[in-house]
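Morning run. Coffee first, then this:
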Amino acid sequence: MAQTVEGIVAPADGSLEESVLIGADSRTFHAYLHIPFCRVRCGYCDFNTYTASELTDVSQSTFAATIIKEIEFAARVIETRGLPKRQLATVFFGGGTPTQLPASDLVSILAALESAFGIAAGAEITTEANPDSVDASFLQELAAGGFTRVSFGMQSAVPHVLKVLDRTHNVENLPVVVAAAKAAGLATSVDLIYGAPTETLEDFRLSLAAAIALDPDHISAYSLIVEPGTKLARQIKVGKLPEPDEDEQADKYLMADSMLADAGFDWYEISNWAKSEAQRSKHNLAYWQSQDWWGFGPGAHSHIGGTRWWNVKHPSAYAGKLQANASPTQARELLDEKTQAVEKVLLEMRIGAGISIDRIKIASDQPERVAGVVADAIARDLIEAKAAIGGQLVLTLPGRLIADALLRELLG
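And here it is:
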């Protein structure tokens, strides 16, 4: 197979290796739709997103038709390879800001997915949304079209923090749209980011309290990562803004876990809390449990049975390939058993159920050391002793704070 710096060159017809068939019946199937449009680019964001002024040769009005071409293309690839027919267990529209498109476009894309693959009964169908890009009628149209859940990008309730993040939504609009989503019958989630330069502990406490007051079904709280090449990284480099303080970020995480637990939210993944097991993000759990998903849209990543690939990033190049009836894939990689084992540990250790210690031994470069690392982690209150005795590694609250370091110890 031809190699590039990025990975293996994918065939123009998108055909998949026979290895994807192994164990396919035991894996669930999911869809991610990358909608790359944003009204304003946030200073901290390094996602594959574009504002209208950056796309002179691509129209948002034709994007739904383009992504539907990829859905139809994918259905042919799957049928040709002989993969078992699996209905979609979850669908997630992310970006970007999916709600930059009209609700009718999002519903049309969902209908195309249902036509191509089928959607399982009770499937979780989510879209991310900017609080200022939806209203009651928009949300009602989504619900009528089959959506079941909406995830609002709140990030903060404090104006000066939102300004640092270049978030432009009206804080006062969030309770209105969350209430409208509930009235439409949609489950609700809100996302917070903590650790922005100039954000104090009290600022984050206010944001948490505001998120809890919305009474959503689910809350995510992510530690800000300063990504190279972003506006925020440049501002920090020249001294316009201070670097995030790691100790303060840890304090904010502890505050989040305490306040959310007191409000009736259960932790189930390092950055995620839900009111009940039924309200956990089934789509994200599919990622953490290494299921199969097809990512549609510019720059979207996919994973089917140990084969991973990613699409060309620019919407114009993406549309051009599909117009030529060619795969929009940029490159792919075939994950060997060792890599898959390591990634399984990296992902599953994040969730509340934890991961089998035997699986960690399979992935570790020094499996003979794992038992000793586990015993030491129990002594340091980083993992739950009772679960470990039963053969399962489950992080404690202190363990969540240093999960990456613990992983390095376990994997050798």
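The domain at 18-288 is CATH 3.20.20.70 (TIM Barrel). Good start to the day.
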